[in-house]
Specification:
The protein has 875 residues and is of the alpha+beta class. 66% of the residues lie in helices and 7% in strands.
Length: 875
Amino acid sequence: MAKLLYRLGRGSANRPWFVIIGWLLVLAITVTAFFAFSGRLNESVSIPGTETERVTDELAEALPEAADGVGGVVLVSDSGEFNQEQRDGIALTLSKVSEVEGVTGTLDPFVTQAQLEGKAAELAEKQRQLDTAEEQLTAGKQQLDAAEQQLAAAEAQHAEGNKQLADAITQATAGGLNPNELTQILALRTQLEEAGTALEQQRTQLDTAKQQLTDSELELATGKQKIAAANSLLEYAGEIRLVSEDSTAALASVMVRGELHEANPNLKEHIINAFNDNLPAGVTAEFSAQITQEVPSVLGSGELVGLALALLVMLILMRAIIPATIPIATAVTGVAIGVTATLSLSGVVDMMSVTPILGVMLGLAVGIDYSLFIINRHRKQLRRGTEVYESIGLANGTSGNAVVFAGITVIIALLGLNVTGVPFLATMGTVAAFCVLVAVLLAVTLVPALLGLAKMRALSRRERQRLDEQNPAEREAALQKAAERASAIRPMPTWRAIITAVAAVALLVTVAIPAAGMRLGFPTGKEEPIDSTAYRAYMIVDEKFGEGANGQLLAVAKLPAPEAAAGEDPATSEATLSAQASVAGEIFEQDGVRAVAPIGVSEDGTVAAFQVIPDSGPDTAETTELVHTLRQLEPAEADGVLGVAGNTSAVIDVAQKLQDSLTVYLLLVVGLSLLILIIVFRSILVPLLATGGFVLSLLATYGAITAIYQNGFLGQLFGVNEPAPILAFLPTLVLGILFGLAMDYQLFIGSGMREAYVHGDSARHAVQHGLKAGRAVVIAAAFIMIAVFGSFIFSESNMIRPIGFGLAFGVLIDAFVVRLLLLPAIMHLLGKSAWWIPGWLDRILPNFDVEGASLERQHAKPAVHGGEADPLDDK
């Protein structure tokens, strides 16, 4: 690999325009593809297979209208209570909003609140009607009882008459008379037959009246049950309000087809404009985060500040404009290619808005660093008198080889995000890995080409003058003097190593302590900028309607098929209503539930959905516990346990899934770290120390993130309006990126230590030699990383800000505390045992020349300074 990169570097330096034009063509292709094929990014976070997604899919099939997207709009009266003119104006505004294409409906808070408040009176009136009907039924029953008694008496008389007729016929027959010829008997028989017919008619009428009474009693009982169920539901929903108690704020809703986060940004803009253009005087509209969420810009002012700071660091390090600007130019080119190529696929691949920003963040950082490693090596070799093209080839074959290895390590770590089973995280990792790949390719091709154009101007004017003034003998003497100074380096005192190690570990452990209380979630409106409408909307709802109104849940119950009467709608049957009331009651009884209201029933009455208002906000541990409790609840009137959906539930599910995947990914990364470092350093303890140091720096980073963004420590300094749970995918993302960067720093410092040890230095001298050889470039690289990542701390996106801080702080801790202090101190204390490895393992491990030491030995004799137009050496 080193020889290939040597030839590639010299070839690129000797034919710079060929390389530059080639990369410009690649950029042109990716930019064209971006404009031709790019799609829309979104702010949603979803993971297939979660409980929320399953319930939402079932609900969309059984109750489609309940699965539509809903956006909240907070209406505030500027002059106190809403007056009638303002209420009428709001109704007109909502009708205008309903006309926006894509909007399926709106909810007028005043009409709905009036309906809620009038429901009790309506139910009371129905109850009065039922009481009147019951009184009438009681009176009717008494009348029927009296009629029954009268009819029974008449039937008894009729029976007695029939008995008398039978006796008369018997007597006549006994006297030898024909009963059919006797006038009295015939008259009596006719009279009794007519009376019997009349009695039968009366009996039929009475039976009919009794059945009507029974039916009315059943209808009355059903009505009572419905009223009782409705009263119960009204009681459970008593705390739900759409107009605040002081009548100064109201909650309007806008319904759109499908999920709101998937809606076209133009639709959201049209909704906002429809409100702002039609609101009555004295009314202000504040829009929830679901409506106002926008895709943040890929490159903002903060990122430009980061680039400026990186340029400043390189100017201080190199004291020359040309070599300082080359890393910036290659990094920006790499980011442009990587991001435009990625976004060209956004039309067919679902991407979050933070996905390309992560590519920008990492692409800039590693693009600058990797270029810096090669340029720094080239400049050192030029100062030693190496010919320009030879120096470029050697720098590319040595430091470029390390860059390739470091880049592969970072890429593998990022691609490892695919094993988490989280699609959006896998996409982020893949995009970032592609940006790193582009940065590596640019570093080993475009950087040598630009250095070839720069020639000796890669050094400052003073350095060039000094070289021109030196003759070969003076240069050799200077090199010999530098070698003597290097050999005179003394190992650190043991007492200093002990203090350094103890202090570093104590610092890392102390900073890591808050990580024990880390909770995961996603940003809500209260984490938006204070001057944003989403923040104002969230805080008004919290103040006027309770914090639980910002974290509503959607509970779904499967009900038994109702036994509805013929012609009765199953969805509104007494059985369905009673089942709804029963389920709502059991939900209402759970700790942490403030209110429950039914929001819909499927046409067949077998699926019921409920709005659940928690006592606490969407990002609290109490609400998370409530979701788990409801999912374990099996109401008596339901078939199975409840399902829970909604935005709050989705966030909880995604956070849990990411938390579960973090352990798997951490084990993968730690295993990969040990394997790579064992191969590179041919040691057991050094990889264990390096990996353990990474884990400590990672935990310290988690602790700092938790302290600031969750606990509010120094919150004002970092723009934290309201402390909240940590962005759910941040720990996994920071783990993957910091692992790659930590391995870079370990390789650039540790390989120098191993090289010195292998070439005869004592173990403790080797630690100092490696540290002195690698610390300058690691410090510069770390400062650049911190500048680039730190520029994202004040990003307009509340998702990006904690990521930027976490990466910047992680680099600070890992580079300056772990790699430059802790590990050298511990390796000094271990001495030569740090490099122990079992013989059998040493024999089977491949020999991996990370920094191209073999190539350097082959080209050990520097060429004479000059001859800048030296042709490509193919040997």
